[in-house]
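dude i think i finally got it to work??
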Amino acid sequence: MPTEIARNMAHARIDAADIALCRASLRHGSRSFLAASLLLPREVRDAACALYAFCRMADDAVDQQGTDEAAAVAMLRARLACIYEPGAAASALPMAADRALAGVVAHFDIPRALPEALIEGFAWDAAGRSYDTLEQLQDYAARVAGTVGAMMALIMRVRSPDAVARACDLGVAMQLSNIARDVGEDAAMGRLYLPRQWMREAGIDPQAWLARPVFTPALASVVQRLLAAADALYARVGSGVAQLPLACRPGINAARFLYADIGRQVQRAGCDSMSRRAVVPASRKLRLLLRALLALRPARAGQPAPALAANAFLLDAVIATTPRAPVAGRRGASESLVWVIALFERLERRERGQSTPA
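look at this
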């Protein structure tokens, strides 16, 4: 049965001029990604630039000061509909990022449900949505981070259900780490992502706290619970690492080790992410990257972990597309790190609502 993407193969050509424009749009604020992307094979490098440029554009469209966020989200949805319009010529799309993404989603069989879910996450932010439970927060994290992990996995030709499930787990875990780290910065922007039920259980009224955010031992207990939830997901990623080709394992290790260590830094500060922003020191990063290069054979669980409930719809969307045969050839370990860097940057920009150079 032909898939939605297979019916839209007119979009499969990725124009070099559009990729160049995408790369230019990333020069002011995404220098780390651009430098790292030079290590990728051209096909993967170009596709990653196109996807990241679209994500960056979407972030900017919704977060720009004074923007009508609801209108910006509606416009993003309209543009995505044009990108996936069957039989439409990619050259007819007005923006380079849209034309490039149209080629990427066709060439790599990226189901429309994935970028749609990403935009839905933006819509939740625009609506000021709040999250009472961890499960509700995971639903949000699946949209703004699990989707990116899934799409980058597809660009790297990784489509097995368990591997994609673990990529989505990693995205959600990283988002939870970001939320724990950025409690103070989010509060300054009128945002609260900590599960409100947990806050009430700790004796904190969420609305009153948001009106006057302060650090207390009770708040620290809520942050600690969130870090524990993230750690549970990082632990699931290890069994997925054991199933990857050896050259790909350092990149996945880097993601789980570096971002899990953000949580360690928050804990070392007594879970106070109000007075300062936790940063992993450069010397510590080097040690973790060395560990990522050496820990290539983690123990495998006897039975694969089921997909996180919040991520199940992303996995279903990938499974529904016709799988392609794996691409032959070797890929260096450094290339596996690139999508991790891209996801790091995207998560940081999304949570902080900033566009400062990396």
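DSSP finds 16 helices and no strands in the chain.
im so relieved honestly
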